[in-house]
Every structure is written in structure tokens, then in C-alpha cells.
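Narrative of activities, Objective 1.

The group set out to show that a structural description can be obtained from nothing but a protein's sequence at a throughput compatible with the screening campaign. Below is one input-output pair from the validation batch, recorded exactly as produced.
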Amino acid sequence: MITKQQALHKAEEQFSELIEMVEEAIENGWRIDELERSSFAKFLAIGHQLMTAFVAAQGDGNQGEQVMHEGKTLRRLSKPHRRRYVSIYGSLKIQRFVYGTREGQEIEYVPLDARLGLPSGEISYLLEDWLERMCVKDAFRDSVDSLVDLLGVRVKVSVETAEKHSRAMAEHAASFRAGQDVPPPEEEGELLVATADAKGVPMIHPAACATSPRVRHRRGKGEKANKKQMAYVGATYSIDRFRRTADDIVNELLRKQRAKGRPRPQHKHVRAEMTRPGDEFLHGTLLHGPSYLFAGLAVECHYRNPSHQKELICLLDGERQLWDLQQEWLPRAVGILDLLHVNERLWTAAHCFHPERSSAADEFVERYLRMLLEGKVDSVIRSFQQLLSTRELQGAKRKRLMATITYYQNNRQHMRYDEYLAAGYPIGSGVAEGACRHLVKDRMEGTGMRWSLPGAQSMLDLRALYLNGDWDTFVDHRIQQEQITLYGQAA
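Output recorded for this entry:
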């Protein structure tokens, strides 16, 4: 076993070699990147020796033949035990004495591990941080390969290890969210907005097979029998009022003329929930993804607006299940049907009568969009019903127009756009649409990707924390929680 002095002496030798390399680079006219690449490997080697010296300086954890720990008398086991520690500089073998009742039984106390604040697994907290930052953005295989390429063969991490650590980290997501501070009031906008949508995740097994064998449930709306299961995505944010006219919206949607002075969402927090078996405290039950999502949105809205001084807005598409949950969890909110979905239905109706990309289709959409924005929803419905009876549509076109009429009839109470525009409310759920894309699609629908239910939920939890800008504070929270679990105190 190398001593502290031996490791420090080796580090000094390597540093001298590094100085000589710089002198050689100066003398021989190296490009700056050549020195950068060559010196990096040297820095890693020096770091490994410094880590070795640090561990050696802590001793072997020998506290005598017997110790009292958590009210129990424990014996020092006869031989030191070795554990592997994988740092960004490479692997270390740490020899230390351990304590328990007898050899072969569970090790109950390891003084040196507590002194060093070692993690539960082999990978260091810093290496885990770097690896998971990559994993929340790219496939596990690509992330592992990228990390190995960057740090060299000194660090060997498997895809299975990366997946295991993702799940272990995600176990702390709920406690982190529960302990987060609310945004400072002076940084909030005038309105508080909650929005939700759904996006399918490709699964290893169909949704019905992913639940506990003792829990069978009928598929809910949006849960398909194929190999995709819905992730219900939600977001909360605040924003200032932005009063606009029907002309402003028409110009923005149809002519791509973005309105000037548009306020930006403040403190946007996204999250996603899938329907899944309950944890150890809810054994034998099923966590209903959309209900769990709306419960979380309601909690955040309460803490961000406890005195109800801000008007609460809820932006959704036409899925009935989501509107029912809004009434249950956010009954005070002004419910607004996302205008983007409304506009999509207008184009569907237009193409029942006019060719795609035709000026006639453009004029059809502009006419009826303006009517909807002016609050004339009933007039649009009556006009479409008249077209349905007078134009003698058949087959698929007739079904599409009927579906549009039904959609508007079912959601007319959330389509008072003239009032919403006058009040300065947001009327488009672009935040939810963007969250579905950034949170789910960009990471979880890569070529050939298939997810287990625990793995999918873990990735959604971690990716949401990353996209919310909470990664650094979450990593610190996760370390502190594990240190308390392992050693009874925070690091």
C-alpha cells in the first residue's frame, strides 16, 4: 500500500515532467492545442497521485478491537477490506478496517468510509455528476463513450452502471422538489400559469404489462395498447399581462409576425409523470400519472400564490381527462383552450373544401380564426353545421368536419378569446408543447430506444431538473441525503 509521502513524491515528479513538456512545447513551436491535449493526460495522472496521497493520509480506519456504534458493540473484523473508488482521475483501491458482529455477516460500520464521505457505490459523486449530465441529454451508450473518450481509459463505466445511477439519483427528485424555495415575489410576473399535455414514450412492454402483477387497471384515455405509454407533462410559470387584438393574433399565427414587447415566462418549472405502481409506502396501488401531475401543479401554484393575489390561468388542449383534473385540483383557474389546437382544427376544416396550400384555404382559416378571436364561437359552429348540410361532404371529409364541430362544442366554455385578449392572458400552450418536445421527445424517442417504466420515470425526473436549471442544487441535495442515510450526518 502506497504511503502519503510516496504518492506526493510521485506527483512532484509528474509535475516536473509537465514543466519539461511546456518548455519543449515552447522550444519546438507546438500548436497550443497540442500542448493542451498532451498536458491534460499529465494533469489526470497528477490528480490520481494527489487523491492517493489524500486517502493514505486518513489512515486505515482502525479504531481498536471494539467500538460502540448506534448503541451496539461491534468487533473489528480480522482483515482489512478493500473497496474500489472510481474518480475522474481513475480508480483507487482503498484498504480499510471494518466493523460488524462477525466475519461473513453484514458490515455495520466503516470509520474510514464515513471520514471520507464515500458514496454508496463505486463511482465518485463528481464522476456521477458529469456522467448523468451527459445521460440526461444523450443515450446512455453515447454518454458513457463520450465520458471515456474525454477522460481516457483511466475511467471505465458501463452502460448498466450509468442506468443504475440514474435511477438512484432520481429517487431523490421528489424530496428535492418538496424542499425547493418559491421564487422571490419581485421576480414573478402578474399572472400565474399552469399548463399540461401528454407525449408517448416507447416502452419495452405495453403499458398494461408494466404495472405490478397484482394491480390490473383499465387503460385510461391517452394510454394506448401498443408499446407507447403516455408521459403527462406539466409546467408552471408566471408572466406579465400582454393585451392584444384579434389582428395581432392573426398576424402572428398566419403571417409569422411576432408581436413586439411579448413578456417572457418567469421561473418556468416543468415536470412529467407516468402511471406506475406505487412505492414502498403505497404498495399495491397505482399512481395515476395525470392525477399525480395535477396534484404537483396545484401544490406549486399554492406556494407561489398563497394569498391568491395573482390570477391563475390553466392552458390545456381538448383532452377531457385533463379538464376534469383541472376542475378537481385547480378549480380557481381560468381555463383556456390552447389556440394552437383550435387553429389546427380550422385547417382541418379548410381542407375539407379547399386544396392544401391554396389561397382559398388561407382565406377560410383567416376568416374563421378572426371570428373565434372575436368571441363568435357559436357563429363558427353554426356556419360549419350549415356547410356540413349544404356541401354534401362524404366519407373522411365529413367525419373530419363533424369532429371539428364537436371539438368546438365541447370546449366552447374555454374559448372566450375576446375576453382573454382584453385581459392580457396567454392563449397558447407553447410552453407545454415545448416541454413535451424538450423533456420527452428529444431524449426518449431516439432510434431504437425502448424504456422500462422505472427507467422512463427516472429519466423524466432528472431531465426536468436539468431543464429547470436546478441540476447543481439537486446534485448537492442528493449527496447530502445519501450521506445522512449512510453515515447519519451530512457531508
